[in-house]
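batch_manifest entry 22 of 60
target: HNH nuclease domain-containing protein
source organism: Mucilaginibacter terrae
requested by: lab member K.T.
priority: normal
notes from requester: please return tokens only, no post-processing; we will run our own comparison against the previous entry in this batch. if the run fails, retry once and flag.
--- input ---
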Amino acid sequence: MNHQTFRNINHILARDSKSTTYKFALLRGTIELIGENSPYIKIEDQRAHFPLGLLIEKWLLYYYPLVLVPQINGSAQLAFAETLRELVNYYNLRGGISAFYNDLKNKGIPADIQKVFLLLVKKIASTITQMPMKYIGTSIDGQHFGIYQYDRVKTRSVGAIDAEYLILNFGTFSIPQDYYEAFQLLGSFINGTDAILFKWAEFSVRASGQKLSVTDVLTEVMQSPVTARDIAESKTLYQSILQTEGKVRCVWSGVPVVRYDIDHIIPFSVWKNNDLWNLLPARPDLNNQKRDKIPSPNFIEQRRDEITHYWSLIRRHKMHRFEKELQISLLGYQTKNDWSKLAIEQLQKSCDYLITTRGFEAWTL
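--- output ---
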């Protein structure tokens, strides 16, 4: 296991496609199987091998309560949503998810719903292997199945349709041993059970005498002090300053513009920061193209003059606020002499960290 493996995991979490929850379900299931130290895990040829059926079982339990909650951006639904809904409706009259899980683990799936169940697990297996397993990690080397690999096997059916049936009939998948060891060490933090916020919430629930729920506490703890109103006020202030300029140039292209967006240099989705230094005028099409990408350090260097021009303009109009925000966010203990040079250098360092360590996608023209 090496440092690069941890960096790759950061890249996967930050840069791989987020159009569905499939990636999160795959990583969560893998981490849980490793954390449970499943006896079915085998280490061979520097890869950790797992029965795909164990992952299918995890997905059944993950998505069962979420079948009515959007899991894909836009209007599309889960590839297996309709079939899963049939199963959920069947068990809603028979005890819900607990009854389903009991049948899956102990009694076997009843004959009158077996056809639906078998169709469902085949759809889940196909979704797992052809979607997240295929594409996860493409942000690292552009290769399909670059981390996860799926090995099909001939059907070895057993009598009952249950969890053992899933294990024996859906082949295996594998991940590199380095990733297996990384997930062993950090999996519970990635997965949330040992994450600081989750532990904080659990403690708060106990301290309240169970009057609060983990969900209640997490909702409050995760609230940002920066609101939509703060964003609007900062942008309005910035636009009023720009009106004194006469001609406004797009910071990223240098082209004069009449219509422009106020763009966050470091995207708001990455860092909830509405400091005036972080707001710059940009062509709407470039702002849309940039979205949650991070300007590369080299591109910031190319646009240094335009960035510092706007910084100087803002500083003239709102000196106290601008200098306070710049000191706290970019200058730190450094003096204000040659402030623009120091601030650009720190901005480049911050962007480099977000790209190389955190795994966000670099952006340039």
